[in-house]
Specification:
Layout lengths: L10 E5 L3 H13 L4 E5 L3 H12 L9 E5 L10 E4 L15 H18 L4 E4 L4 H12 L6 E3 L3 H15 L6 E2 L2 E2 L7 E2 L5 E2 L2 E2 L13 H22 L4 H15 L4 E3 L2 E4 L8 E4 L2 E4 L2 E5 L6 H20 L3
Parallel strand pairs: 1-2, 1-4, 2-3, 4-5, 5-6
Antiparallel strand pairs: 7-10, 8-9, 10-11, 12-15, 13-14, 15-16
Helix pairs in contact: 1-7, 3-4, 5-6
């Protein structure tokens, strides 16, 4: 795969200035992720207010240009385009419930974005992310590696945080992944998880109790349920997803070759093809440079295929 041409100055374009898009812009600016950050939103007053608010903090962040507006031209020449715009998930709604409206929006905005940013890597951060990513690949005609979704990067972070808290270790010493759909059919890959090099299934505990099957089931349920709890309490998830998306963007712009559970189109991955799901993948300036054939238990393989079947059924429902 050939990497897109990179310039000395990096530009990030964020489509959607809602809770996720504006938080993502804030996170990217405070981390110095890109030298230029552009916000695009159909609500001109809202996006201009967000840009002004961000500009007022320029004294306290790494040097960067902050622009925005309701004209797609603000995205011209972007190295990375992140799409956060989509229907807002309401309390009680599943991510799949949002599919039709968000796919329609993707059909409208993607061709315009491709005109002004033809060499960009496109990252979808809008739900249902796996279906939207599959649709975006079909609509754009770009190589699959250049259009991918944020997937279960945040879910994997939630999983690691819960394991670390239970076991009394630093989260950086936990290596564990959530795979499959970013949604109700996602699954933790317990068989390949480790804590400081110790297989998680062999963990006996130091300051805390061992991770028995009951605890693992509770943690997995909490990971899936956490977004619903946040939405019920405050109306949207934004902080953690903004940080997770920023981490993905940095892996692209800094050519990090980092392993992240982003959502991309799989081809014969443990027998799964023609569907976008999250698996541990190498992310660098090419986008998704490859996926890792993580060993799976029989149960994990069965559940991952069931997750794929669920996504494929939704794709067919919407003619994808």
């Amino acid at each position: 795969m050939n990497a897109p041409v990179r310039r000395g100055t990096t530009k990030l374009a964020i489509v959607g200035a809602g809770a996720v898009g504006s938080t993502l812009a804030y996170a990217a600016l405070t981390r110095g992720t890109a030298r230029s950050v552009a916000l695009l939103d159909v609500n001109k007053q809202k996006v201009e207010a967000e840009v002004l608010d961000l500009q007022h903090g320029m004294m306290f962040i790494p040097p960067a240009e902050i622009t925005g507006g309701d004209d797609v031209e603000v995205c011209r020449g972007a190295d990375v385009v992140v799409v956060t715009a989509g229907a807002k998930q309401q309390p009680g709604q599943t991510r799949i419930d949002l599919a039709e409206a968000t796919i329609g929006l993707t059909r409208r905005i993607l061709p315009e974005l491709l005109e002004v940013a033809p060499d960009a890597i496109y990252i979808m951060v809008t739900n249902p992310v796996d279906i939207v990513t599959y649709a975006a690949q079909k609509i754009s005609g770009l190589p699959n590696e250049r259009v991918f979704g944020s997937g279960t990067v945040l879910d994997s972070s939630r999983l690691r945080a819960a394991i670390a808290l239970h076991c009394g270790v630093a989260v950086g010493n936990v290596h564990a992944y959530i795979a499959g759909e970013h949604g109700d059919s996602e699954l933790p890959l317990w068989s390949s998880a480790t804590i400081g090099g110790v297989p998680l299934l062999d963990w006996k505990g130091i300051d805390g109790p061992p991770l028995d099957a009951e605890v693992r089931d509770r943690i997995a349920h909490d990971v899936v349920d956490s977004a619903y709890r946040i939405i019920a309490g405050k109306g949207a998830t934004n902080y953690a997803v903004g940080l997770a998306a920023t981490r993905i963007i940095e892996a692209v712009l800094k050519d990090e070759h980092r392993v992240l559970t982003v959502s991309s189109k799989l081809e014969n991955y443990h027998g799964i093809s023609d569907v976008c799901l999250s698996v541990p993948s190498i992310v660098d300036s090419r986008g998704v440079a490859g996926v890792l054939e993580v060993p799976l238990s029989d149960e994990e393989r069965t559940r991952l295929r069931a997750s794929a079947d669920s996504m494929r059924a939704v794709q067919q429902r919407f003619g994808l």
